[in-house]
# Entry
Amino acid sequence: MSERDPSHEKSGLIAGIAAFVTWGLVPIYWKLLQRASPAEILAHRFVWTALFLILLLSWQRRWPEVLDTIRSRRKILFCLTSGSAIAINWFVFIWAVNSGRIIETSLGYFMTPLVNVLFGALFLRERLTRVQLAAILLAAAGVLYLTLDYDRFPFIALTLCFSFGVYGLFRKQSGTAAIPGLFLETILLVPFAIAYLFLLNQRGTLAFGPSHFRFSLLLMSAGIVTGLPLVWFGYAARHLRLTTVGFLQYLAPTSTFILGVFVYHERFTRGHLIAFSCIWLALAVFSIELLQRWRAGRGRVDHSAVVAEA
# Structure
């Protein structure tokens, strides 16, 4: 991270807040696209995000980073795997939002930092402290209670947090930077997205074209909605402490939770309250321990995986 300057730190904080609040409020955008199926929305998201990133990489003159990654079969394989994981994450999120399950998506993203810690211990042999283990078990207890009380397995929340955890794990293993990495992840899957859109067009069910001009513009803006917060996040990550970025990431699921409860008036049961309370307590314990470790200089947590949450 570059040496911090007060003016840069202030603008970095504004950029970070803008990125995470945008990710938290993005369900509003997906709601506007309900005319199209979740699969078609996902296909458009890949196509237009790839185009946006092509323009961004050209403007930033970062194509050498992309070419360097392409030369490594190992990195390409990791990008393909992480791209598949984020495709699952994006699809489930879009489907859940347009099925009236916004609260459950926020539950999943509240759990994500804890799943990242768990994956680090399981797959990267990172040391799991007793406090971190207690936080994970507390969150698991909340999910278990919700499952028993709600009489429905919270597969949306678990799919979102575990798919994003897998995404972060493979992204970390690939060693690619955020924007070049996301470009490769999307461009590798763009041919499948285009093929699916052509199939919909052949069937006459494509919700895109001159006859749907305004709606088509909305679909095309998926590239900006996906890519622009990433630019803001990148700026924030360069000018803020990792702990600050770590705390800011909770703005996204908090904003989504507020949307689900107070804007779209989704059903919020006692089971939800107890599950969220367990997870919020777990995150508080986890965050306090993280802050203490950072102050003591004994460890740092990598929050880079958060760049592709919405």
